[in-house]
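Schema walkthrough. Field components (list of strings):
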Amino acid sequence: MIQSTNTFDSSVKAVEWSNGRLRLLDQRVLPAVVRYLEFDDVNQVADAIRSMVVRGAPAIGITAAYAVVLAAMAAHKKDPHLWQEIIQPDLERLIKARPTAVNLAWAIGEMQKLFSGCDGDPEPALLARAKEIHEQDIRANRTLGDLGSEVIGKTQGVLTHCNAGALATGGYGTALGVIRSSWSKGYIKQVYVNETRPWLQGARLTTWELMQDQIPVTLITDNAASLLMKSGRVQWVVVGADRIAANGDVANKIGTCQLAITAKHHRVRFMVAAPTSTIDLHMPSGDEIPIEERPENEVLGCLENKIAPENCTAWNPAFDVTPGALIDAIVTESGVINRPDEKKIRALFTP
Amino acid sequence: MIQSTNTFDSSVKAVEWSNGRLRLLDQRVLPAVVRYLEFDDVNQVADAIRSMVVRGAPAIGITAAYAVVLAAMAAHKKDPHLWQEIIQPDLERLIKARPTAVNLAWAIGEMQKLFSGCDGDPEPALLARAKEIHEQDIRANRTLGDLGSEVIGKTQGVLTHCNAGALATGGYGTALGVIRSSWSKGYIKQVYVNETRPWLQGARLTTWELMQDQIPVTLITDNAASLLMKSGRVQWVVVGADRIAANGDVANKIGTCQLAITAKHHRVRFMVAAPTSTIDLHMPSGDEIPIEERPENEVLGCLENKIAPENCTAWNPAFDVTPGALIDAIVTESGVINRPDEKKIRALFTP
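Field assembly_structure (string):
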């Protein structure tokens, strides 16, 4: 992996291993409340992923890796010989917590590779690997952040959607990693963020995260993106990804696809920033990526308020797929792919 | 004007003249609270328009016409000879209440045409004209609703944005007039509505209005429109307009332009439904239409909840302009314009 020399740090830690337990920043209550929750039970971690205590594809992957450590510790305590069997239902529950992001399955798969080599207490080896996955993600973010900032170069402003920041990753961020690098180099003057209904990751998390680091951020509704682009305030849209198919189609937060379509119309460029762990070569195109549908009440309300009439019906798909043809650049820690296609994506994995 | 034979009625009345006063349904608190406010002071009506007690271009126009009656009644009481002079500052304040919708200025202009012919008490003549403007709007809606439904024909579903319904007009609605007509003829099976942040006209008003009339409606976030179109659930997007320029560019609720861009991408057709009073032949293109910017707090919060961090900055343009080239049909009470351009729009006004 290319090493980053960027030392600009983020103060935000969404996932941490602390005194033998997993500590998660509760993203459901930000920015009003900054609260950490601690976990020692794998099934509670699965619930936390489902209810979005932690969210963001890379952060979910890292959380799952630590959750495998918790599961193995408990199972080994129960039966030191059969722990690998005991753990299976836990891992299946964990993998099903959220279907769209591939990083969850990827991280669990990485951890499982070590199982057969574990003699005796599996904790030391598994914990070391989980920490490695975590650190690897931060390094990847720094590297792809640097690479992405050089693609953007010196310009005026960028628009981002959802939260692909330190809160969504091991730290630093993917889309916000690019934005942090661009800002620290003086390449950009202003960041705009879509509020990102229904869960308001943009309004609640991205504004908060950038304000922690004194990066100038202006919040807009998801509806205002077209006028923002037309006004000349932004030259690039930068987003993260939950899963990238082999042909370059990108599953990401609902609303990403119409942002890419709108950017193309206004000749604003469109960047996807993601570690290679988000690329799923088994998925030939975006059409095969499972799209999670979440509860209606996320759409029928906004935070605690009900916004729609009683008995109103809603549809709440959490992700959409942006065709590779609408993407100017996919930026990973292994390199930048301009105008992605299957050949260029497979080449990333060829030494 | 073409007469509609459609008798399907809406039970919703946003604006009414009642016992010498103007009665408005308070749209700020719907659907949780159904509350009517009464006005006998023109400046309070201007405040009500600014604070969106009443909203929607045609409804604002009708409200302004009745407000001119209130202003003239008060001014004539003060001085029966100088009332036309006394009234001028009131009318200027009224016209400035909201800048984007042309119907406000149009209706006030229509009322002013009668001033010179008013001998003695101006109330009877002005009130008769305000009621005529009101009834003309309802007739126009019914007619354009019928015309629009025939353009759509028998299909599956339509998507609408904001509220261009009975609540936004004299009654019946423009976009929702088309949808009411389509539904009553059995042409469509399902209506989808964008929640329409920041003011949530879709979530709060359009759902409520359609549910009053038992028309099946499903609420989505503004972000889900692209996936909805891709899924094949909708064949048309139908919206209203706040001002239509001479070249066919359409100013409408923020988010409309990216909806049109997205519809074009997915080969979903795009209809604007509006009375001819919304067409402003003095505006050569959409670039000259003034776009209202509303307070930041509408974006920083959602109903009573704050959603963004303290001291966060926001940008809140309330409208955007959709280029005529992205519009398949503009439907008015005087006829349907396919693929609008200046020649076709001017032809509407040529007898």
